[in-house]
Amino acid sequence: MARAVRTASQLDTGLLLACGALAAVALVMPRWMQDSVATAIRRTVLAPMVNLQQKAEVMRMTIVTRDSVQQIVGAAVGATLSAPELSEENAQLRKLIGLGARMQHGFISAEVLRTGTLDRDFTLTVSAGSNAGVELFAPIVTADGLVGKVVTVDPTFSTAISWAHPDFAVSAMSVDGAAFGIVKPHLGTGAQRWLLELNGVPFRAPLKVGTDIVSSGLGGTYPRGIPIGTVIGELQTTEKWVRTYMLKPAVLPNTPGPVLILIPSRAAKDMNGVWTNIASSDSAARSIVMSGDSMAKKAALAEIAARRAVDSVTVDSLRGDSLARLGLPRNTPLPTPDTTKKPLPRDTTKRPRPDSIIGKPKPTTGPPPPSEDAMSEHSWR
Q1: Which residues on neighbouring strands pair with residue 214, listed in sequence order?
Q2: Cys bridge to 261: 20, 69, 108, 143, which one at CB 3.0-4.6 A?
Q3: Is the pLDDT of residue 271 over 90?
Q4: C-alpha–C-alpha distance, residues 176 and 238, integer Å
Q5: What pLDDT is stored for residue 151 in this prediction?
Q6: pLDDT of residue 338
Q7: DSSP per residue over 53-69, as a string?
Q8: pLDDT, position 5
Q9: CB 261 within 8 Å of CB 138
């Protein structure tokens, strides 16, 4: 046993010395020879170990990559589901589909490719042109209301101006049709640049805050009933015979997305009932007013009936007391006045007041009365 151990230790020592000698030889070899020897050893003696190492490395990288991919996919899905932009865009698409279903015909769907140009602000580039049927001055709308109108048409795209453009103007009115005017951009500074003005409203037609303003259909470009904005206050001007109101726009011009371009056959018709939010709010307000009026009428009728009941009770009690004093039964019917007899004619001749004839001689038309001498002579005879 001791001999076998001694032989193994001698073999290990020999291998160690051989490896040291080979290492010394490798150090003194030229560079090109070292690379050739290393390559030969890897391809022959160390080939199984090299293959095993490569497989282990590939497996490790696969596991790490798979975990990373799963983490990235999970983060992407979470970001997609929680992205406010995508949620808002999906909501706009759903509302636009509903708007198209209510219109049923007469529109071209398009996408706003870019807002603004290099030389002019407040302009839009739309992904539809004359090949799709777009014409000049065609109104552009979304599910929220009016965006603008087309000003130039190319075969594959069009250029439009939004309501914030200085050249924009539209004839407008309140939802109930009580006030009319012209809507133009406010052209203020800062945040007020994104507001609208309703000009030319008659002074006798005041508008309350929160009143919805829609297109009136006058002028031939914009059909009646497209939402434009909401009244947020009155603007003080030097003109005292008309009013000017500030409006909050229904659609912000810096929110590009899917839009609908109306063709002339559809633009010539009213849009009443297409935007259900405006119609429903108006009908709700009318129903509230009508219900309030009906309740007031019922209360007034009830009050009149109560007064009549009290008056009838009072008259009956007084009538019974009067009949009892005369010695008649309480249920004796009273004589009704004869309304068939005509009243006597009224003497309309003017008579002098008594105080006006006191101290004045009474006028006579016959001979003058005899004197005292004549009276005495007549009595002597």
Answers
A1: 173, 227
A2: 108
A3: no
A4: 27
A5: 92
A6: 53
A7: HHHHHHHHHHHHHHHHH
A8: 60
A9: yes
Cα dihedral 216/221/227/233 (nearest 10): -70
**CA dist 206 to 211, 284, 362, Å?**
10, 21, 74
| Rounded-to-integer distance, Cα 326 and Cα 323, Å | 5
Query: Which tokens in the block code for residue 211?
Result: 């009143």
Give the pair of three-digit tokens for residue 129.
């042109």
Token digits for 265?
A: 């056959």
Task: DSSP for 314-349, please give it.
Answer: HHHHHHHHHHHHTT--TTPPPPPP--SSPPPPP---
Q: What is the DSSP letter of 222?
A: S
Q: What token pair was written down for 38?
A: 């290393």
Read out DSSP for 123-185?
EEEES--GGGT--TT-EEE-SSSEEEEEEEE-SS-EEEEETTSTT--EEEEETTSS-EEEEEE
Q: How far apart are CA 237 and CA 239, in angstroms?
A: 5
Is pLDDT of 117 > 80? no
Q: Which residues pair with 249 in a beta bridge?
A: 229
Residue 358 is predicted with a pLDDT of 46
Residues 6+ apart with CB under 8 A from 259: 96, 109, 110, 111, 112, 126, 140, 141, 142, 147
Integer Cα distance of 283 and 221 in angstroms: 27
CA angle 166, 171, 175 (to 5 degrees): 125
Task: Read off the amino acid at residue 261.
Answer: I
Paired with 125 in beta bridges are 114, 159
Does the pLDDT value for residue 280 go beyond 60?
A: no
* CB distance 113 to 127 below 8 Å: yes
Residue count of the chain: 381
Q: How far apart are CA 343 and CA 340, in angstroms?
A: 9
| CA separation for the pair 176, 376 (Å, rounded) | 104
Quickly tell me which residue has 């949620």 as its tokens: 87
- Report the largest interatomic distance among the alpha carbons of the chain, rounded to a whole angstrom: 223
Residue-wise pLDDT tens digits, 191-223? 788 899 999 999 888 899 999 999 998 887 888
